[in-house]
Structure formats: structure tokens, C-alpha cells
Amino acid sequence: MIDVSQYLKLLPYSLSKDPVLVAMMEAGVIQLREAYEEAEALYDLVNIDKLPERLLDLIAYEKHVDFYDNELSVMQKRELIKASISWHRKKGTRWAVERVVSIVYPNANVYEWFEYDGHKYRFKIEVDEPFIAKKDMKRLRELVEATKNKRSWLEYIAIKMPQTQYIELESDQYQYPIYLPICGTFHCEGMPGKIQEKTLELQKVNYTYPVYLPICGEIYPNEVMDEW
């Protein structure tokens, strides 16, 4: 460890007692200590958790962390850098894709096509995030592209929602339209109503949604069953 007294011994006796020079020497020693610590951490990737964010960006560039993003949080940056070596060794595997996505979206899962009856050489990703912004979706795709093998293709991203959700409704008065057929003519009347203050429970249900497939220039509707 660098000590101020070691440097003061190099000076003439008269200068070693100068308070201004001693203060300058102490300040210089502090800077040298920080430089040594940063150099050591950059050399063998130790103490990543203690490095400032500006050095994390430099390490990511030096270690070729392909899925690194400067907009990530500091904690996410640290995790990506620490795992970069193992990811480079296992790049192109399902484990690598799942691991890198999980750092950004905890509890993310990757499923191969044969696990959910999908198209060959496709895979899907399930995340627990209830809402994903457009920029986050773009980042997720970039992470996948940087990690997956060239043969496999991301089919879609599924957002897992809780099986039971609760909606709180406030008591309120309102008018809603009622259309009454009278003598062949529909008449609209405003009827008073009231919302009760209670909790509605939405249960897990099956549903279908249309998917339009372009085949030979024609669009064919198809029904897809899914469950949440």
C-alpha cells in the first residue's frame, strides 16, 4: 500500500516539513490509490460491484459484451459483465438466451418449439412483466439476437399475467342509454344506474383470437386457442 511517508523521504528535509507540499503529496497519494484499485479491477474483473458506472461501460466494451446497453441500470450492467465470459462460451444455447433475458426481465423462460407445439426451429419467451414499453421490447429482441444461434428464430414474446386480478370500483352515479323499440322505431332513453363499491374477481378463462395467414396471395382467417 502506498504511504505518504515513503514519498516524503525522497525530498530534502526542509521540503518534507512544508505543510503545503505535504498536503499536495497526500492528495496525490489518494489519486494513485484509486488508480491502482481501478487498474486491478479492470485487469482481472474483481470487485465489479464496487466499480463506478463509467468504468462499467469501459469494461463492457473491452470484454465484448454484445448484449450490453448503456441505458440499463447499474445493477443490470454489473450482472451482464460478470456473466459475459460464461455466456461467450455457451453462446447460441437455450441457457444463454434465458440467462441474459432473465437479467433484464427476472423469471423469464425460454421454450423450444416442441414444448408448445410451435413451428420448427422457433422458440418463444415468457416474461412476468405486466407492461413492456416499446423501447424495452426492442431491447429484448436485441438481447435475443446477440445470444441465440443462427438456426433458431424468436416466434413471439408472451407476457404472463396473474391468473386472478382484482379491480377496485368506486361508487358513482351515471346514466346509460337504453334503446326501446316502439312501433317499429327505436327510442333512446337515459336510465339511472349505480356502480357498487366492491371488488371484481377475474377468473382464468380460455379464449380465441383471429390470426390471418397470407397464403398464395389470399388471406385466410384461423382461430387460435390460448389460455392465461
Provide an overview of this structure:
By secondary structure, the protein is an alpha+beta fold. The protein is 37% helix and 29% strand. It is built from 8 helices and 9 strands. The protein folds into 3 domains: 44 residues; 112 residues, no CATH class; 38 residues, no CATH class. The two termini are 60 Å apart.
Question: What's the quick description here?
Answer:
With 228 residues, the protein is of the alpha+beta class. The protein is built from eight helices and nine strands. A hairpin with a 2-residue loop joins β8 and β9 (218-227).
- Main sheet record: 3 strands, mixed
Say how many strands there are: 9
Structural Rg:
31 Å
Which of globular, elongated, flat, extended, rod-shaped describes the shape? elongated
Strand content: 25-35%
Quickly count the helices. 8
The structural class is alpha+beta
Low-confidence stretches: 219-228
Distance between the termini: 60 Å
Helix content: 25-40%
Strand order of the largest sheet: 1-2-3
Mean pLDDT, to the nearest integer, reads 71
Number of separate domains = 3
Q: How are helices and strands ordered from N to C?
A: HHHHHHHEEHEEEEEEE
